[in-house]
Write a structure and sequence with these properties.
By secondary structure, the protein is mainly α. It has one helix at 2-37. The longest helix has 36 residues, at 2-37. The chain crosses the membrane at residues 12-35. Keywords: Membrane, Transmembrane, Transmembrane helix. It holds the Pfam family DUF2474. This is DUF2474 family protein.
Length: 41
């Protein structure tokens, strides 16, 4: 039972980490597009 609880916690941790990495990627892409549109890149 304890192993299942830990697996659930690790699953949530991995999910939150993955979402945060994806969100950072989206923000970086948007900034890149804005810089390109402004002629800075």
């Amino acid at each position: 039972m304890a192993a299942r609880l830990w697996m659930g916690r690790l699953g949530w941790l991995a999910l939150i980490w993955g979402l945060s990495v994806a969100a950072l990627g989206v923000v970086a892409t948007l900034l890149h597009w804005l810089m390109r549109a402004a002629g800075m890149h």
